[in-house]
Model the fold of this input.
Amino acid sequence: MPFHQLQQDILDQDLCTVCGACQLACPPGVIGFDGLDPVLTVESWTSSDCGECGDCLAVCPGADPATRESEERLFGRGRTVEERWTGIFGEVVAGHALDPAVFEASASGGSITSLLQTALVSGEADVVLSMGRDDDEPWRAAPALVRRPDQLIETSQSTYQLAPYLGALRRLMLDEPEADVAMSGVACHIQAMRKLQAMDSAAGRWARDHVVLLIEPACSSSTRPEGTADIIREHARVPLDSVVRLRYREGVYPGDINIRTDDGGEHQVAFWQAVRVLAGNKNFRCLSCGDWMSGLADVSVSDGDPNIFAASVRKPAEQAKHGRVFVRTATGAKAVVQARARGLLTTTPVDLDGLNLGLERKRNRRASYERSGRAVPEGPIPGYQEELDIIPDERWIAAPRTEDRT
Done:
C-alpha cells in the first residue's frame, strides 16, 4: 500500500494531522514535508517502489487514531462512556514547577517542563522532543531536540501552531539509535507514537525500546501558521521578518502573545484576542478531532484554570497558575514521583468539577462534525456520538464588552 494510498485516504480527505509520523516511519526515508504537506522527496519515486509497504498509512492517526487498540495494550481495556473525554487515569492532581524560572516561563505552571527536565536529570532520557521555533523564521513552530534541562525553559511552552513534529526523531533514530527519548506532544502525536510502537518494523522496534516517556498537554485544536502570522501583522502591526522571538502565553497569568522584534521592541497582543484570530485559521482535521487528550500518554496535563479566555479578559486571573496532571501509566507515576523527589514539581489533590472551556469547545465542534455527514476521524469509543445541544464556537469566545476588559 504505497504513499499514493496515503494521498488518497488521508491527504485528499483533509485528514492529515501534520504529526510527521509518516516521515519517521517510512523505511526508505522518502517522505518529507513541503510546509504542512507530506510529500515524496525523491522525484522519481513511483507506487511500485513502495511495493507492499504501507507503514506510512499504518502509523497515521489522521482517520484512525487506534485509541481502543492502544488502550487495550496499555490498560487492558478501553475507556467507558464516562471516560470519553478524559480517558483512563490513575489519579489527577494539581501541579506546578518549583523552579522559579520554569514556573515564570510556563503557560500553566510548568508541570510538563518539570517532568521532562526530570527525565534528563535522572538519566531516564538522553534527549527530549518538544516544540520550539524555526531558526530562520522564529515566529514559526518547529520541533526541537533538547539535551539540557535548562534549554527546556525556552522550548516547552504552549504553542498554538501546527508543524511537522515526529519526523524530527528520524535523524536521531538513524544516527544515535541507542539514545532514549522523552517527548511532549498533543493527542495526534501521542496516538501516532503508540501506533508506531505497536508496529513490527525497524522504526517500531526503535520506538518501543527508546521512546521512554510520553507527556501531552490538552489540545482544543491547533492552528495553521497563517493564524500566528495574522496576529503579528494585523494586531501587533509588525513585519514578520522583524520577529526574533515569539511566545504565546507570557507575562501575567494567563499570559499574552509576546513578540520581540529585531529593533529590541516588545509587542503584546491580548491572549483572548489571539484566540479569536486563531479560531479562523484551523484545518478540517483539527476542527473535527475527537480528542481533547489522547488518553494514551503516560501523563496528560490541562490548564488548571478552566477558562483562560475569560481569565485573559479580566486580568489578573482569579486562580493561581497551575496545571491538572492526569497520571495514567506506571511510567507516568514514576516520573511524577521522581520530579517531586528532586524538588522540581509539587502536587496537591484536585477534583474535576466544573466547565473547561477548551474541552467544551472541542465537544461542541466534534458534535457538529459528527452530524455533518462528512467523514471524520474515528473517536476513542468506536461508533459513539456526542448528544448535546450544540453551541457554536464563536459564542464560546465572543468578544468581550468594552466594560468587561481590564
